[in-house]
Sequence to fold (135 residues):
Amino acid sequence: TLSLIVIIVTPQATSDAVNVQVAYTQFNVFDPYNINININGESKSVGFTGMVRRLRSLKELLDNQWGLATQVYQEDYRSLIDASEAGIRITYSPTDIGSLINGFRDNIEDTYNSVTDLKLNSTLRAILEAQLTLN
Fold:
């Protein structure tokens, strides 16, 4: 079952006929929330919602490192922050969902590279890499 909410911005009389055309061009019609991402040269299919949840969790983990011996700052993992905010951006601009999901997919490899370059202890690095590579 496909549910569709149409928001008509221009005022219309309730007696006027409205024609709605739907085209899926940015992602798979049958599973729009699964996307293919490329991490370390390996292509994986990942649920968009679950990946955003993982990224938000990792952002929180890194945010809590501030002031500890392994200091990292938000500017050190900006691409992770950007990727973790993808879900929020979609709620603010649902008409841009295709470009936002494509941008998210393109940003994941940068996110992985920026996080693995951080100066972290081995345990924290292993947690981050496992979450980002879906292991």
